[in-house]
């Protein structure tokens, strides 16, 4: 075999080796990429599991809070005086008659703008806030029902 032919043959073999090396490198890079994707998927799955666990724990805490602290406790129970009961029922009836069953009111609705009966105001506020944990505005029909119980 002549020297130029031999050189061409070596070059072709080297070219084949280079292609094989390049192919091997591509396969290795693909493996690394797939492993990284697997790790990313595992991390995403772990994050989703952690998020679900936290959401479940939060729901349990909310349930516990609602069932324990929102229920009237014996120390918070305030019995309304008959005078205040009558006043609340009368105001609720008047508001419902004037504006319908969706009318809302606060405990201030039972009092004039003057602070002429602070004891009754405190009794109403304590009953409203501490005993029943009501929002600032509530439906008049709900308040009337609570008073009539």
Q: What do these coordinates show?
A:
The protein is built from four helices and two strands. Strands 1-2 form a two-stranded antiparallel ribbon. By secondary structure, the chain is mostly helical.
Task: Sum this structure up briefly.
The chain is mostly helical and 149 residues long. The protein is 72% helix and 3% strand.
Q: Name the quaternary structure.
A: single chain
Rg (CA only): 39 Å
Structural class: mainly alpha
Order of SSEs, N→C?
HHEHEH
Shape: rod-shaped
Report strand order across the widest sheet.
Answer: 1-2
- Average residue pLDDT: 77
Q: With helices defined by DSSP (H or I, 4 residues minimum), what is the helix count? A: 4
Summarize the biggest pleated sheet: 2 strands, antiparallel
Please estimate the helix content: over 70%
Strand proportion, as a percent range, falls in: under 5%
Number of strands: 2
Distance between the termini: 114 Å
Task: Flag low-confidence runs.
Answer: none
């Amino acid at each position: 075999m002549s020297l130029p032919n031999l050189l061409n043959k070596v070059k072709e073999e080297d070219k084949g080796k280079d292609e094989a090396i390049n192919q091997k490198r591509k396969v290795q890079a693909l493996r690394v990429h797939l492993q990284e994707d697997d790790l990313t998927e595992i991390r995403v799955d772990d994050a989703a599991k952690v998020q679900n666990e936290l959401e479940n724990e939060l729901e349990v805490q909310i349930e516990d809070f609602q069932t324990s602290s929102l229920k009237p406790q014996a120390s918070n129970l305030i019995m309304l005086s008959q005078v205040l009961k009558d006043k609340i029922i009368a105001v609720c009836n008047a508001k419902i008659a004037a504006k319908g069953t969706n009318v809302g009111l606060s405990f201030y609705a039972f009092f004039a703008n003057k602070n002429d009966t602070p004891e009754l105001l405190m009794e109403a506020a304590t009953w409203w806030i501490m005993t029943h944990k009501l929002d600032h505005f509530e439906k008049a029909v709900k308040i009337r029902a609570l008073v009539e119980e």
